[in-house]
Amino acid sequence: MRTHSVFAGAVLGAVMVLGTAAAPAVNALPAGAGAGAAAKSAVTCGNAHWPHRNVDRGSGKVKPAYAAARTGPYGACTKVGDVSQRTKVSYDCYTKNRYGSKWTWVRDPASGRSLGWMYGGHLDDGGATKRCPR
C-alpha cells in the first residue's frame, strides 16, 4: 500500500488505538469568537462518538493525490495520516455528519488495520454503501 510517510510506525499504532479507544476532541475556535460560536462551530471527533462495525464488504480507491484519514467524520477532526492516490482501501460503513456529508471508515485491506474516517468525495465510488449501526 502506498502511503504518505505519516503512516509510518508510531502513527499506525496510534490509529489502532483510536479505533478502539475514546478520543474525543473539540476544535479550537478562532481568536475573538464568542460562546455562541462555540456551539455552532465545535465538532465532535473520536470513535466513542462515532461507533462503527465492519458491515460493508466494499472497497474503493483514493481519488486525490492524498486523502486524509481523520478521527471523526468532519474535516475539522484530527488528521491521523494521508493515503495516496489510487491506493485501495476497504470499507467498514458510512455515516453522515451534521452537515449531511458522507464519511466512510476505511482500513488497509492487506493488513486489516484501521485508518480512520475518510470523506466520501475522496473515494472513487463515493465510499461505503452500508450505514454504520448505532
- The rounded Rg comes to 15 Å
Helix-strand category = alpha+beta
Please give the largest β-sheet. Answer: 4 strands, antiparallel
Our count of helices gives: 2
Which regions are unreliable across 5 or more consecutive residues at pLDDT < 50?
A: 1-40
Shape: globular
Distance between the termini: 31 Å
Summarize the structure.
With 134 residues, the protein is α+β, with helices and mostly antiparallel strands. It has helices at residues 10-20, 35-41, and strands spanning 59-61, 66-70, 79-84, 88-96, 102-107, 114-119.
Protein traits:
alpha+beta, four-stranded antiparallel beta sheet, disordered N terminus, 134 residues, globular
Describe this structure in words.
The protein is α+β, with helices and mostly antiparallel strands and 134 residues long. Helix content is 13%, strand content 26%. The protein has helices at residues 10-20, 35-41, and strands spanning 59-61, 66-70, 79-84, 88-96, 102-107, 114-119. The strands form 2 sheets. A 4-stranded antiparallel sheet has the order 1-4-5-6. It has a two-stranded antiparallel ribbon with strand order 2-3. A hairpin with a 5-residue loop joins strand 4 and strand 5 (102-107). The longest helix has 11 residues, at 10-20.
How would the blueprint of this fold be written?
Blueprint: H1 10-20, H2 35-41, E1 59-61, E2 66-70, E3 79-84, E4 88-96, E5 102-107, E6 114-119
Antiparallel strand pairs: 1-4, 2-3, 4-5, 5-6
